[in-house]
Amino acid sequence: MPDQLLWAMEVTANGLLNGVMYALVALGFVLIFKASGIFNYAQGVMALFAAMTLVGIQDGRVPFAHLINAIFGTDIHYFGWEVPALAAILLTVGVMVVFAWAVQRFIFKHLVGQEPIILFMATIGLAYFLEGTSDLMWGSEIRNLDVGLPQGINPVIDEATFNLFGYGFFIDNLDISAAIVATLLVAGLVAYTQYTKQGRAMRAVADDHQAALSVGIKLNYVWVLVWSLAGLAALVAGIMWGSKSGVQFSLSLIALKALPVLMLGGFTSIPGAIVGGLIIGVGEALFEFSIGPLIGGATENWFAYVLALVFLIFRPQGLFGEKIIERV
Amino acid sequence: MFYREAGDFKTSYTADNQTFPIAFDRYGYFLVLLVGLGVVPFIINDYWANSILIPFLIYAIAAIGLNILTGYCGQVSLGTGGFMAVGAYTSYKLMTAFPWMDMVTITLLSGVMTAMVGLAFGLPSLRIKGFYLAVATLAAQFFLVWMFNKVPWFYNYSASGQISAPERTLFGYAVTGPNAESWVKYVFCFILVFVLAWAARNLTRGSIGRQWMAIRDMDIAAEIIGVNPMRAKLTAFAVSSFYVGIAGALLFTVYLGAVEVGEAYGILKSFLVLFMIIIGGLGSIFGSFIGAAFMVILPVVLRNVMSDGLGWDTALATHFEFAIVGALIMFFLIVEPHGLARLWSLAKEKLRRWPFPY
Questions:
Q1: Strands B173-174, B163-164: parallel, antiparallel or unpaired by DSSP?
Q2: pLDDT tens digits, residue range A270-280?
Q3: Domain chopping of chain B, boundaries
């Protein structure tokens, strides 16, 4: 086989795995949008916040250390203990649940019935607030996140492809574990929404707020639940991206990567988020590989948007979105 | 007592149609113009001009532009930063290619160029609606910034990839470049803001503005009563981009002088202008001004309090600034989703009945 084709295959495989990451972030968006009609721009910053909190707890850092030191003139940074990865993850999940409750109680409870654009603006405000807060809490340096996931090139695939084609594919172990975790997460979510009481309540709310309210479903409870699940998705995305490239500000920009995924898949569809993520992942990787060098490179920033735009012109509600029916 | 319509009789259609029907408002408006042009240029200093007045005037233009699109026509746009970059780079190319051209022409032509680009990126709005459109405008943001970064022709093949404004004069006074005095820049911006705001106010209350508002309130119903949605949406995109392009050009030529596109016209700029119109008030020209003033003054005040007042290091102050801006935006949305302009009009309602409310 010619080298070009092999490289393209490798790029495609890596693009697929990247797409899984995008889909993870998009998943959080879809959960919240379906249940409450809120287009949550803060999803990316939630991933950053979750990853920062995880690292902070693991290292035993004192929250708001900078602020405390600046106000009281002290010099404290660490508690002096280290928390094992699993316990730290559980604690972070707890933090994300508290965060979900606070968001619902202090912000969106007061904004029920507002126009979607106002809710969207509130989430941009939330993103700013959360970004400032997470930097205040844990500092803004780049952190290494290590929860014991395997890293580096996968020797099995390398060898197998070398024997097959005479060229070893470079596939990162981390990407593979991300794909596995993402699959598990999606399977878990689907099972949860299909087979549990809370899941049924969630679907009911997503279908029709008022009807759900009238059969005795507590909207507030469901919304807290949904924000917690989105927080969980953010945590998983944060762990994956954080292990890959360090926990830093740019992590919050993955939200911008997830937006075209959403457009493509439709804002209300979980399968859409996954398929959209894969299409975008492969599309941008192949475009950068084939056309990128001709026009200056770094096309990943915008190609996903243009691709989504082209799809949207033919299907304005995304590939899997609900058909938009408009009446006067 | 003094703020009222009673006794203010209209005898002609012109008088009936005026923008400020209450005499007190009219006097206030003329007073602002008088102070803005007759007093401020003589007492202005570099600090006030550079940190508050000039950015306020420039962002007011951008906010009016976005308000026309989002507030009046209901099309959410997150591409403001990209369109501002189009204005900036057009003015740069014009300034370097035609050194004899004066600043007013350059600025207006930058607006026209941006209007055409905005028209192109507005085309999907005919098919895509709501949040799908908002995300689609991000395509403009990222693509334009990438293009200005990667195509060397736009920055005249300079080694740093930056563009910097050469000196250009207007009536013998330097408006751009390092030698421009701050009062000249201020007066230049002030006059442009005045003309553009006046035009926007009159556009939005005329036939085309009513078409925009009909589309905003319900596009299908508007179509049924005879509004051409294609015309209304595309004119909104064009006019809005014209304003935004002028703001971007001024931000580069008059205010910053030298820019790096990703830094000056990145997505944060889009959000900044969006915050301005949300805090100021959607669908209100006056609101664009208050919103711009608020978002320009707030960081200056916060920085002064935290860095100089409390002596914190800048990193900490920046983080705090982010958190406070975010919290304030959420607070405003909860307290008054229609913005400061709405609070202002409520205050005026109260003032009318003062001192005998019923």
A1: unpaired
A2: 888 888 888 88
A3: 48-267
Q: CB of A256 within 8 Å of any CB in chain B? A: yes
Phi, psi of B75 (to 5 degrees): -100, 110
Phi and psi (nearest 5°) for A143?
-115, 150
- A111 and B337 within 8 Å at the Cβ level: the answer is yes
Mean pLDDT of successive 10-residue stretches along chain A, which has 328 residues: 75 82 84 83 89 86 78 76 83 92 89 81 90 85 75 73 72 81 85 87 83 88 90 88 78 79 81 86 84 74 83 79 71
Which of B204, B224, B220 lies closest to B212 in space, CA to CA? B204
pLDDT, position A287: 84
Preferred mutation among B70, B126, B131, B153 to probe A, highest tally of A CBs within 10 A? B131
What's the gap in Å between the CA of B244 and the closest CA on chain A? 20
- Compute the distance between CA of residue B74 and CA of residue B236 in angstroms, rounded to an integer: 10
Tokens of B110: 């930058």
Q: Are B60 and B291 in contact (CB under 8 A)?
A: no
How many C-beta neighbours within 10 Å does residue A72 have? 9
Those residues of chain B that have pLDDT short of 50 are none
* Residue B140 structure tokens: 């403009």
* CATH assignment of A3-314, among 3.10.620, 1.10.3470, 1.25.40, 3.30.1330: 1.10.3470
Distances from the Cα of B34 to the Cα of A136, A281, B30, B263, B347, angstroms: 45, 58, 6, 36, 24
A180 interfaces chain B, CB cutoff of 8 Å: no
pLDDT above 70 covers a percentage of chain A that reads 97
**Stated pTM of the model:** 0.88
